[in-house]
């Protein structure tokens, strides 16, 4: 009889602990702070993966995000210049002559329904470059598009987005053949 009472008491305690452990599971997971549109604003540093066909290059870039614009003080344009110039030695000389390229990328921002990320929709401008080549200057216009939305996540203060250099025009003529150049910013952290 004592064994039966001890067994009942042990089962009651065991069921009580199981019930408490299941209740504590209701609130597991990290607390994700809600974001506001203003949270996007700041200075960032991150990886840029530039790809054209099977060729890929990586660089670390810095940029500033303002109210409705992402400002690059030095946008890497090596692949664009290489597509126009074709000769590797002349490409390096042209890049040196061009120097740093400033580019502003306009965006509109909306906080998503869960309030845990800011969605960025881009309206890229064309980029105009004057590329020196064989004693002449080639007026080059690059048409950028943004195929996907970008995101800012408040949990880790990171931004992700991408651009595509869809078309290049040199001295009024569309560059053909031309394979699109993708600019992917997979993980950029706010400083």
Question: What brief labels describe this structure?
Answer:
191 residues, alpha+beta, 3 helices
Description:
Helices cover 22% and strands 46% of the residues. By secondary structure, the protein is α+β, with helices and mostly antiparallel strands. The protein has one domain. It has an 8-stranded antiparallel β-barrel with strand order 1-2-3-4-5-8-9-11. A hairpin with a 3-residue loop joins β2 (55-65) and β3 (69-72). α2 (78-85) crosses α3 (88-98). The termini are far apart.
Biggest sheet record: 8 strands, antiparallel, barrel
Mean pLDDT: 89
Low-pLDDT residue intervals, each spanning 5 or more residues: none
Secondary structure: helix percent = 10-25%
C-alpha-based Rg, rounded: 26 Å
Termini, distance in Å?
A: 70 Å
Oligomer state equals: single chain
Structural shape = elongated
Structural class: alpha+beta
Order of helices and strands: HEEEHHEEEEEEEE
Tell me the number of helical segments per DSSP (H or I, 4 or more residues long).
Answer: 3
DSSP E strands, number: 11
Which percent range describes the beta-strand content?
over 45%
Number of domains: 1
Strand order of the largest sheet: 1-2-3-4-5-8-9-11
Report a brief summary of the structure.
Helices cover 22% and strands 46% of the residues. It has one domain (37-190).
């Amino acid at each position: 009889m004592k064994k039966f009472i001890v067994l009942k008491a042990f089962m009651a305690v065991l069921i009580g602990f199981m019930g408490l452990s299941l209740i504590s599971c209701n609130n597991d997971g990290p607390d994700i702070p809600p974001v506001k549109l203003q949270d996007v604003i700041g200075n960032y540093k991150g990886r840029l993966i530039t790809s054209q066909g099977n060729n890929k290059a990586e660089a670390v870039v810095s940029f500033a995000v303002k109210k409705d614009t992402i400002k690059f003080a030095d946008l890497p344009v090596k692949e664009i210049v290489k597509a126009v110039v074709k000769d590797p030695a002349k490409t390096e000389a042209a890049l040196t002559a061009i120097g740093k390229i400033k580019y502003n990328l306009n965006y509109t921002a909306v906080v998503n329904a869960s309030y845990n990320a800011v969605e960025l929709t881009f309206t890229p401008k064309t980029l105009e470059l004057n590329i020196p080549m064989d004693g002449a200057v080639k007026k080059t216009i690059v048409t950028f598009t943004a195929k996907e939305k970008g995101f800012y996540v408040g949990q880790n203060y990171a931004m992700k987005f991408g651009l595509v250099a869809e078309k290049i025009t040199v001295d009024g003529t569309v560059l053909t053949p031309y394979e699109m150049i993708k600019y992917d910013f997979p993980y950029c952290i706010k400083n």
